[in-house]
Amino acid sequence: MTTTTTLDGPAGAVRPVPDRQGTRPDDERLALATKSFLQDLNTTTALYMESCVHCGQCAEACHYYVQTGDPQYVPIWKIELLKRAYKREMGPLSPLYRLFGLKKRVTLDDLEKWQELIYDSCTMCGRCALVCPMGIDIPSLVLAARHGMQAAGLVPHDLWEPTERAEHEGSPLGATPKVLKERIAWLADDNGVDIPLDRDQADILVTVSSIEIMKYPQSIVALAKVMNHVGASWTFRSDGYEATNFSMLSGDRGGQRDATMLLINAALAVKAKIVILPECGHAYQAFRWAGANVYGKPLPFRALHISEYMAEEIRAGRLTMKPDPRSMTFHDPCQVARRGGVCEAPREIFKALGADLHEMSATPGANWCCGGGGGVVTIHRADSLRHRVFHLKMQQVEDTGADVLVSSCSNCRLTFDDGQAFFHWDKTAHSLLELVADNLAERH
Questions:
Q1: How far apart are CA 185 and CA 175, in angstroms?
Q2: 19, 440, 398, 387: which is closest to 193 by C-alpha?
Q3: Can you state the percent helix, strand and coil of the chain, rounding each to 5?
Q4: Interval 199-258: pLDDT, tens
Q5: Is-above-0.85 flag for pTM?
Q6: CA-based diameter of the chain, in Å?
């Protein structure tokens, strides 16, 4: 049997790789899902399960519910099957629930019907957790539910496919080490910029999102310009560069661990003091906030989003820019700002640029999700619903009256590009990193 390392088990622990095509016997798939649900239940998650007071505040925080009015999209309802498994199998009254049949056993049919709620209509953006009076972290419960769905072979094919590609090729979009090397050589030559690759030692390991490699390659050039401008000792590594973690999005614990350990090992190999994460929200969430759990101890280096790093360099006086006084608005990526806490760094950058920043109606970190996070933008059957909720984001941007829309997440940019094309919208989402690189001051 093929095995791989668990995400949260002891060193050397292994797990069977579930058949994500769903060809295992149904009872075996259901048993794997139930086992996974229970594996994720601990004191904290049990407290979440017991704390909901059914106030409904999470409903009004969810873009899916707000745009449809459909009660199935209420965030807390999306984890109902996980809650049922807990109540029946582990809760304080579980013997009574089983004895009197008060909580029915979760079936494979239940899980198959539930798939669209867990994957298609939840970006794990965290707005629901932000308003919950009981402090229930619903996105973490949705992620736990995805672990069980993955174990049962119920990851949507559009999300399962790039997850598998990442596990076998090192990148969800086919940006293999060979592609990376070719792309860096081409970008360095065409733009006359030094882009170090595979240095034996560097103070900073820089990572990248495959979306940037394949769709927004100028982000790589911009990154190189910024790093060279501040005089950093830095490098890409072809043995650890892909920060996008599709395994986390699909619910594959083992794949999530593998992808994270590639970056950790590359950082250790070059004796890095800092690992810079790219303009990718879920890359930040997977490495900055879950990396130490994967490693099993504190990371021996700092993990920074690129906007955090640039803000630090501005404070140190090493990153200097020409003024760009245009009116701009900033879309806070959910996983970087609301879930990751990086709200002030981008605004320090806009201040240093002298930009006329028009904030969106919600306070920084509380704006509407773009609708494409959590892997949703890859699931084609979810397009109609995703476009419907994108109206909220469009209106929020329009209400600012700003001329330039900026974000610091390539996945958000991808979602904005899709929305722009679908609605024939006149707004294009620009990269904060590229904006900085375009306005670097001359070094004297």
A1: 14
A2: 440
A3: 55, 10, 40
A4: 999 999 999 999 999 999 999 999 999 999 999 999 999 999 999 999 999 999 999 999
A5: yes
A6: 79
